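Exercise 3.2. Students should predict the tertiary structure of the chain below and write it as structure tokens, then compare their answer with the key that follows.

Predict this chain's 3D structure.
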Amino acid sequence: MRIAVTGKVGQVVSSLIERAGDSVEIITLGRPQVDLADAATIAPALAAAKPDAVVSAAAYTAVDKAESEAELAFAVNATGPGALAQGAQALGIPIIHISTDYVFDGTKPEPYVESDPVKPLGIYGESKLAGEQAVLAAAPDAVILRTAWVYSPFGANFVKTMLSVGAVRDELGVVDDQHGCPTSALDIADAVLAIAARLVGDPAGSARGVFHLVGSGEGSWADMARAVFDASRALGGPDAVVKRIATADYPTPAARPANSRLNCARLAQTYGLRLPDWHTSLDTVVQRLIQAPN
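Answer key:
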């Protein structure tokens, strides 16, 4: 199976490359050949790759910067994925699009299900929601996977930041009133590969639409930071005191959802997939970063 993936160095594409077995070839579509901000570059590159499926993984993810770069955020997160879906539809191949918890405003007291009303708080969330809509408009049989709080051994992410800051500071403040489901990009990759195989092998019978895909369990950013340092300390790595603070104590240009928890029951019922407990996956990533930092 040949899978074309947008991006070359992102957390999800890097994880897909690592997790793909001998029977799966990952073809990366990234700059300068493919630029999501330039929709005209997308369809020709996709057709030339001749994939069996395509994964829309690349995105504009600078949440705060998006507030002042709305046009670029929408080009990369909405127009680009829409063009990619059009290309996939023209080739008759399935597309899996990675989306986000930021399509919700975070006011629901329980974990969000796929049918809950969407209401982004900022430009990033608005652009990702527009991307979902553009993909589904171009390819009604697309699979949309909303995920959250992604970390991995690759790229820039919260886990790497905690280890870096913890190496030079004895104490740091971390927000404790935003709750979500930390998710390893390695686990996302495993699920994407399984879904892609199902879509290619059983195109008529595989369910499509929107699904939630996050690590099992939940916690706050402060809980996640504490778990990072607990795992790190056990391996002789950086440790620090985590001071639990409120969102109001750490103002940012873009508002964040207080509740980013996602209910993944639909994915489990449809595809039989449930990601591991986030503590287990986090320990694995921290171990890799401590023992073989990249």
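Discussion points: The CA atoms of residues 114 and 215 lie 16 Å apart. The longest strand covers residues 95-100.
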